[in-house]
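From the methods appendix. Each design record in this collection lists the tokenized structure first, followed by the designed amino acid sequence. Records were kept in a plain field format so they could be parsed without special tools. The example shown here is representative of the layout used throughout.

RECORD:
FOLD TOKENS (366 positions):
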């Protein structure tokens, strides 16, 4: 009997999370709400260990043995550069061979095969499907459908419509951990603070209505009491009410300022986003004045000394290119951090995290 829910989004979040788990850890990675604070800390520490081990040839060779017997499918039917290549690189780091489908016009979907059947076929060849899809909820629905099959493999959500981007949120919070922690002379975090976000003000700026990266990162930051969130956006593109209610439920201080210059001096981190006019239906974004939501070099005198500037990229003119060489610009490091965070996540999903920890403890003194 097929017990696959037709619309998993209508279930309570706790139930959705439970259905995506096996043995009290994520099996499928679909929702940012799957990452509680303990798991966030665990994955960030694991990412640090992976990047430390990968610094040497011996260590890199060890990592490549971990999952050399597994295969990954990168099923990306929505355009992507960073997420696709980040996952491809992460697979290489831990030895996962990988193949790709990036254009459904080259698949049997042209012959009328349903997307659901395509996923079922791919699940017979591969051990994990990393998926970017324009439809909200498609990755979660397919995770539940695969759970009913004799051969069930993990699905990892690499971005679903305007709704969720959990692995981007993981790399973003890993980046913020590194920004707010003291790094050793080797550039590594040797001691993770329990809550580096307490007392910090983090601003999200731009198109927050349609920004799935913002939604997912807010879910994670709400795990840390004492953080203050600012949602700086045009009224037409302000964050949705469900996210504000989520912050309220976790007693997270949050405000919705009317412009970036009015609050930039208060920020410990600013998370810029572009205007996502690809979601317009009739060019409605053209009427929006986006200038108040631009981070410009002229604001530099108002920056805190250790401000962290993040952007999920790609960018347009909302982030001044003249800031690229400022040490507070962390978006290039953010890109690289994605490779380590996603390698750590894949290792965790395939239960080889203990081998990484043991190797790190055996070869590193800290």
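DESIGN:
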């Amino acid at each position: 009997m097929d017990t696959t829910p037709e619309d998993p989004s209508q279930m309570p979040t706790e139930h959705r999370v439970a259905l995506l788990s096996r043995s009290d850890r994520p099996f499928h990675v679909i929702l940012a709400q799957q990452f509680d604070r303990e798991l966030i800390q665990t994955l960030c520490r694991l990412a640090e260990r992976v990047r430390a081990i990968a610094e040497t040839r011996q260590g890199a060779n060890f990592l490549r043995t971990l999952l050399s017997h597994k295969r990954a499918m990168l099923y990306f039917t929505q355009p992507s550069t960073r997420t696709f290549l980040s996952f491809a690189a992460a697979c290489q780091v831990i030895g996962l061979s990988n193949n790709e489908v990036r254009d459904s016009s080259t698949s049997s979907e042209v012959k009328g095969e349903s997307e659901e059947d395509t996923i079922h076929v791919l699940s017979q060849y591969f051990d994990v499907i990393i998926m970017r899809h324009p439809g909200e909820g498609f990755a979660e629905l397919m995770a539940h459908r695969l759970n009913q099959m004799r051969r069930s493999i993990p699905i990892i959500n690499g971005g679903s419509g305007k709704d969720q981007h959990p692995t981007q949120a993981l790399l973003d919070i890993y980046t913020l951990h590194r920004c707010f922690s003291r790094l050793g002379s080797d550039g590594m975090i040797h001691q993770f603070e329990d809550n580096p976000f307490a007392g910090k003000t983090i601003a999200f700026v731009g198109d927050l209505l349609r920004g799935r990266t913002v939604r997912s990162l807010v879910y994670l930051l709400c795990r840390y009491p004492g953080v203050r969130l600012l949602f700086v956006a045009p009224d037409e593109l302000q964050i949705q009410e469900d996210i504000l209610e989520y912050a309220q439920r976790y007693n997270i201080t949050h405000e919705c300022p009317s412009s970036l210059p009015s609050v930039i001096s208060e920020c410990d981190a600013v998370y810029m986003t572009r205007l996502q006019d690809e979601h317009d239906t009739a060019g409605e974004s053209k009427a929006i004045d986006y200038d108040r939501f631009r981070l410009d070099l002229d604001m530099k005198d108002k920056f805190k000394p250790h401000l962290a500037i993040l952007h999920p990229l790609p960018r347009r003119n909302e982030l001044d290119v003249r800031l690229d060489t400022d040490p507070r610009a962390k978006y290039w490091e953010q890109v690289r951090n994605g490779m380590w965070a996603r390698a750590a996540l894949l290792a965790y999903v395939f239960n080889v995290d203990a081998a990484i920890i043991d190797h790190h403890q055996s070869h590193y003194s800290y």
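APPENDIX NOTE: The two ends are 52 Å apart (CA to CA).
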